[in-house]
Amino acid sequence: MNEQSVDGRPETTSNSAEPVSRETERSTPPVSRETGIAFDTPIAREAAQAVHVLNVRQEQWPRPATTRVLTVANQKGGVGKTTSAVNIAAALALHGQRVLVIDLDPQGNASTALGIDHVVGTPSVYDVLLGGRPIAEVATVAEFAPTLRCVPATLDLAGADIELTSQVAREYRLQRALNAFLKAEGDQVDYVFIDCPPSLGLLTLNALVAAREVLIPIQCEYYALEGLAQLLNTVELVTSHLNPTLEVTTVLLTMYDSRTRLADQVADEVRKHFGELVLSPMIPRNVRVSEAPGFGQTVITYDAGSRGAIGYLQAAREIADRGGAASTTSEGTQQ
Length: 335
Ligand SMILES: Nc1ncnc2c1ncn2[C@@H]1O[C@H](COP(=O)(O)OP(=O)(O)O)[C@@H](O)[C@H]1O
Ligand SMILES: [Mg+2]
Hints:
Strand content: 5-15%
CATH topology of the domain at 62-249: Rossmann fold
Number of strands: 7
Bound molecules: adenosine-5'-diphosphate, magnesium ion
């Protein structure tokens, strides 16, 4: 497959004589951002990849001053919400951050990708929302990262939107459970990611009410911006009526394919619209990313040297760095 580098530059043509193989597919960009080393031979590329993989678990990233709660939302399906939530969470956890992922989609794709059991009957986010069960009781530690926990979603959740309708404080269910959890944990949690279903129903509303930040993944495809106005309106409504602390802080361009001019046009348009909210790394379209969940893994562990993994590692790093900057400037106001 002919894919492109993480930063959107087309692949150099120096390798064009090589047969296109799985190895090419696995290769890292022509110049490693981590090392700045140009590797234009297969052996140099392999070496750089190995160094990169080794580094994944070693470096500690800056912790936020207080827990950051990010809701990953976009009412369109298939734009990379789940993929972004689990891979950014995994990247952060593998760099020493304490992370909780809340799977709020009845499909349970985030649970699957993190290797967390979610057959019907498993204690899950459904019990939290409709049974008042504490998050700590249903959160499960991911096998590959001891500092990463996941509240799984089971198919039970499919009816929750309707079941919630008749409940008292139906929009605040997740917020209350999460606040109680964070209090009990003594704020020993750095990040919470909430993976939303592809709709703007009560589940997504619960996620927006429980969060401080919204992370919007946008697929570099036709109609990328279509429907976003509706999401932004919903965020605004939540901000003015239910959760004044909510803000769209992060936009991530996903499934970027530099071979198409369309992808660049979409990326430009999104950057024009959202300015510096857009993370500088774009996630390339990369088959390793879509293979990983089939093995109950994130791409970070499945193939740490792949372009998809590197894209998510860079995006996660930028999220961590930005949070660090924000917490320094608002130091006086943090509790
Ligand atoms: N960067 C990528 N490269 C290739 N496939 C991807 C990439 N990101 C996501 N996918 C695939 O696209 C599909 C939709 O992604 P997903 O994260 O489930 O979207 P959403 O949660 O918004 O519905 C999944 O099959 C996923 O594996
Ligand atoms: Mg999803």
